[in-house]
Design goal:
By secondary structure, this protein is of the alpha+beta class. The protein is built from 17 helices and 27 strands. A 6-stranded mixed beta sheet has the order 8-11-10-9-12-18, covered by helices on one side. Strands 22-25-24-23-26-27 form a 6-stranded mixed beta sheet. A 4-stranded antiparallel beta sheet has the order 1-2-4-3, sandwiched between helices. Helix 5 crosses helix 6. The longest helix has 21 residues. It is globular and about 95 Å long. The chain starts with 13 loop residues before the first helix and ends in a 16-residue tail after the last strand.
């Protein structure tokens, strides 16, 4: 065994330290001009040493230069805000990418208020074909990167060239060519660029960028390049920016400085005046900020020079900033209105959310956060006020998404998650569900959505759509896949891993401790805007109003809300249209009473027939021979597409073998099967009965399961 000398790890005292200094040879630095070749070798050797010391996880280490060291900008450098997000390219990620590309290229964000042009390193204007190809290529990546680049003085920069310089420098840092596209927006106070980067390097491997470079390096490089183009900020510009922060109704860097200097009880002591003018300026700005916080009710001067910052001030300032941004967004989106209505902001953390119910017309929809694709909706309610609602994944039904001009009812929902769907999935896979004639659905550790749909058909309460019910279970089992609790198999089924039931119980316990979940649910009263319903050939929401109470000629009411006025005007024009088509009968008023209009017998059915005939004629060149189902008839095919019309969304069922198709009113859960080869059987149980739509039964074919030896007899 070798003798190992143990290193002395005790700290040196002052005498030992002095002796150590004597023994250590001095570092003599010789001034002078070194040879260029030697300079390059020395610099390279030094950088290699630094990279090896930092290691793969340090700031500056890592293989292939993916964590390139970037120095922090100085105080006088140009300021740049950078936001970043890494998006996984699963089925949801691909859909979000296409929606994101469409949104950042929307009208109204270019310099002239038009539609912006996407660009890359070589092209100033990318055609829509190239954008579609970029999205298709991204769909095969493991992930993609999204960046929002916002220089403080972006209006003074050529943003396209600036973005190209930043991306060229990023390619140098990462030592790979990047495939990217970008769009510049001028519709906000700060000009900014949206940059999308593919998740592949030039060798076709997954592009990996260190979190440090994403968080700091990219922004610092952007600040360096902005400084090279615009020069350093002057001291006057810096002080002006700081002084503006003192009176803002949001969380600012000044607040962070003050909170950091507070003691544990939240008291801040104003420093004394010194001979340093910079320190005196900082002191004056802090006092000005504290006085503004006092006006907001967030701080109080207890003694001269001693301020108390109230607990929760930071949270309140953040919420104030968010609310101000929301109000600004609402005013910008409602710019064309005759009168700016009062703005009400609704939040999901409202403890009384379940009491919220608003009826009105959609003014606009958009992205609350352009990086994360979180959406919002603004509704002009019957009370004349404009209401802002944040939207979640569960706010709208797939296929029934509302648009500007739609009539909606928005309700607040509060619920405690019970994880009933999760438990059903595990029970279906492990025990199975008993069916008729001794048949058993499920078991053997496999969750089969088609078998589950077959089992629940006819067993659910009236009004519950079996397809939508099973779709909710599919969403949950997809979550299992992301959590490694299930495996997606080639035949569309899922293998549930052992221990999933215990994991669900743990998650449920943790969720109950967090409290109830809250979101806003949008119920589309009329999906199509009113002006598109006036000349529609098929039955509409306006026809429903006429059918329910008739249309009475009456004098204009003195007071109408904007929504009531638009509905009344559209209804009047719809009545004139129906009169021309001979679908209304008149009941003359007596004793000076106004005339009343009612539908003739079979009017709704006649309108539907006319609409279906026009729809079939338009689609037959694409899908083949149309089949109009009668009561008791069935049709089998795949869901080809979803057509949106003023009458509502229609599902196109396509029989590719016989080149035939039919169109039926969209049902919940159908959108999930769009574009798939799963065959569905549609049976028409009942014809339309006046306002009541036709009734259909949908059954999804169960595919033949691919047996695997490792799945047989598996005991979970």
């Amino acid at each position: 065994m070798k003798n190992v000398t143990k290193r002395n790890t005790k700290p040196l005292n002052s005498q030992q330290h002095g002796e150590a200094e004597k023994e250590t040879p001095a570092l003599n630095i010789k001034h002078g001009k070194a040879k260029p070749e030697r300079n390059r070798r020395s610099a390279k050797k030094f950088m290699n040493l630094m990279l090896s010391l930092c290691g793969p996880k340090g700031r500056g280490g890592g293989s292939f230069g993916r964590t390139h060291f970037v120095r922090n900008p100085t105080q006088f450098s140009q300021r740049v805000v950078m936001k970043a997000r890494v998006v996984k390219m699963n089925a949801k990620g691909v859909k979000n990418l296409r929606e994101h590309l469409a949104y950042i290229q929307r009208d109204g964000v270019d310099q002239d208020g038009g539609k912006p042009k996407a660009f890359d390193h070589d092209h100033d204007e990318l055609p829509s074909k190239h954008i579609a190809e970029f999205a298709d290529n991204c769909s095969g990546d493991r992930h993609t990167f999204r960046f929002i680049l916002s220089p403080e003085n972006g209006t003074s920069l050529n943003m396209k060239e600036y973005v190209r310089e930043v991306m060229t420098q990023a390619e140098t840092d990462l030592k790979t060519e990047l495939k990217w596209t970008a769009v510049v927006h001028y519709n906000t106070d700060n000009t900014h660029a949206h940059i999308l980067i593919r998740g592949k390097d030039d060798a076709g491997n997954d592009l990996v960028i260190s979190p440090d470079y994403i968080s700091h390096g990219f922004r610092n490089r952007a600040a360096e390049i902005a400084t090279q183009n615009l020069g350093l900020r002057t001291e006057h510009e810096i002080k002006q920016g700081i002084a503006r922060d003192a009176i803002k109704n949001r969380l600012t860097p000044l607040d962070r400085e003050i909170l950091w200097a507070c003691d544990v009880n939240g008291f801040y002591a104003v420093p004394p005046i010194t001979a340093d003018p910079d320190q005196n300026f900082k002191r004056a700005v802090h006092i000005r900020r504290l006085q503004h916080l006092e006006s907001l009710g967030l701080a109080e001067e207890r003694l001269s020079g001693f301020w108390h910052i109230y607990n929760g001030a930071e949270k309140v300032l953040k919420e104030m900033g968010e609310r101000n941004d929301i109000i600004k967004t609402m005013h910008k989106r409602m710019k064309g209105l005759d009168r700016m209505p009062e703005c009400i902001v609704h939040r999901t953390d409202d403890p009384h959310i379940s009491k919220t119910e608003i009826n009105g017309m959609v003014l606009t929809k958009g992205l609350e956060n352009e990086l994360y694709d979180s959406k919002f909706i603004i509704v002009q309610a019957d009370d004349g006020k404009a209401h802002y609602f944040p939207m979640s994944y569960f706010s709208e039904r797939p296929g029934f998404e509302v648009e500007e001009g739609s009539l909606v009812t928005i309700k607040g929902k509060e619920y405690q998650p019970t994880f009933a769907s999760d438990k059903n999935i595990v029970r279906f896979a492990t025990e199975g569900f008993p069916g008729n004639d001794g048949k058993r659905f499920g078991g053997q550790g496999i969750y089969d959505p088609a078998a589950h749909l077959e089992y629940v058909s006819g067993k659910l309460p009236e009004g519950v759509d079996p397809s939508r019910y099973v779709d909710q279970h599919i969403m949950r089992v997809e979550k299992f896949v992301s959590q490694k609790l299930a495996t997606r198999l080639e035949d569309g089924t899922y293998r549930i891993e052992p221990g999933t039931a215990q994991k669900i119980a743990e998650i449920e316990t943790a969720a109950q401790k967090k409290g109830p979940r809250r979101h806003y649910e949008i119920d589309a009263v009329s999906i199509a805007p009113l002006d598109r319903q006036i000349h529609s050939s098929g039955p509409t929401y306006l026809d429903k109003l006429i059918a329910e109470r008739g249309y009475t000629e009456e004098a204009q009411r003195a007071i109408l809300t904007p929504v009531q006025k638009k509905t009344r005007d559209a209804l009047l024009r719809r009545v004139e249209e129906l009169k021309k088509r001979g679908l209304l009968r008149i009941i003359p008023g007596e004793n000076g009473e106004p005339n009343k209009y009612l539908f003739i017998k079979g009017a709704i059915e006649k309108m539907e027939e006319e609409f279906k005939a026009a729809l079939y004629k338009r689609l037959e060149s694409k899908y083949g021979k149309p089949v109009d189902l009668k009561e008791g008839e069935s049709f089998k095919g795949a869901l080809g597409a979803v057509e949106r019309h003023p009458e509502g969304p229609y599902a196109i069922i396509h029989d590719k073998v016989n080149n035939k198709f039919t169109a039926i009113e969209m049902k919940g859960g159908m959108s999930k099967m769009t574009g798939t080869d799963r065959l569905i059987k549609i049976t028409k149980d009942r014809e339309r009965r006046f306002l009541a739509p036709p009734k259909y039964t949908m059954k999804v074919d169960q595919p033949k399961r691919i047996e695997r030896k490792q799945d047989r007899g598996r005991d979970l």
